[in-house]
Amino acid sequence: MQVSIETTSGLQRCMTIGVPAAEVEQKVTAELKKLAKGRRIDGFRPGKVPPAVIKRMFGQQARYEAIYQQMQQSFFQTVQEQGVKLAGMPSFEPVVNEDGKDLEFKATFEVYPEVVLGDFSTISVEQKTAAVTDEDMEKMVDTLRQQNTTWSETDAAAADGDRVVIDFEGFVDGEAFDGGKASGHTLTLGSGSMIPGFEEAIVGFVAGDEKTIDVSFPEDYHKEELKGKPAQFKITVQKVEKGELPEMDETFFKSFGVETADEAEFRVEIRTNMERELKRALRTLTKQQVIDALVAGNEIDAPTPLVDQEIDRLRQQAVKQFGGQMDASQLPAEIFKGQAEQRVKVGLLMSAAIEAADMKPSEEKVAELIEEIASTYQEPEQVREYYSTNAEQKAQVESLALEDQLIEKVLAAATVSVVETSYEDVIRSANANQAM
Fold first, then answer.
1. Which CATH code for domain 120-134+253-435?
2. What start-end ranges are recorded for coiled-coil regions in this protein (predicted)?
3. Strand residues in 116-191 grouped as ranges (E)
4. N or C end of the chain, less CB within 10 A?
5. What's the CA gap between 165 and 201, in Å, rounded?
């Protein structure tokens, strides 16, 4: 078998393979026998059909099947012999495919990039640190109460903190603009969800009021054509609602899974959850900085087949977020391409770094991660048992443990500067990071 490999572009390779005619004919003959076996052909007894008749009837199909099998077999045999790191399936193209002649075909495919990692000591990381303060906890408790406000309709004038249901339509230079109209829109006054001046102007309105307010779009508004523009909004108030915060009692505590009537115990549980969330967020931010530094310092190409697979995964995730009400294939691949390429590069770099360091998952780190997961459940012992008896799920935790161990190894060599910040800043940054 004759083989030649050439680089066509980037990670793409073209392999030309020649297979002796005799080897091909053996496969064609075997395929003919398979196709003819058990067939009833008029004029001939079963098993007595002349080879020439069989070839005339099934020869083309037999050769097609045999050639495809031969190309696959020869290609993967060559890949193994040559030590080619194949990334995705190849495409085949017969070049010479005639009876009596050696088969020659081309296989086009992509390979994994060669990863040569840079020196970790050149990496700089700004590691954030923060603590949950009493003020942070009070804000959280207040937020939880606000989220569980009971609303009741009132004839009184709307005040800051009240909720209104409105219809509105916006105009710029006397013309309605896209996205400036809504019906039955629920708005909490003082929430800052509308442009400056909009919510403040509604204060004092009562149910049934129809008024026009004058406001201006901010200079940094996301729509270019509306930046800094004065606007008028015609507003109709359908209803005004006053809010009543829930009592800090057993019923309220139970709605958050805290089985107690003691407010002090509830606050301890809330603080514990916040500290757990903060720890996870700090780790996420540090990990992302290390990953970004690895990608920036180690330029590699992402194999197209792997990118395509990642695009499909991102499509499926997007469909789930929208309630599964669409076909994933309807989402344009370009939307996810950049994110998919980044994920593939990160995966390749981290795998190469773990392999280069001959790292194995630490039992202590795996146990720590499982304990962290278990601590978020009411029956942590069941979670521990689940991971100890489920090899597939435990393997996922081991993979995360390896990633954490790699991050620690990089940090040990990198230049790390510690920056003190707040709980809110860390959580906000971590949430923004996850949304990317």
1. 1.10.3120.10
2. none
3. 124-129, 150-154, 163-172, 175-188
4. C
5. 14
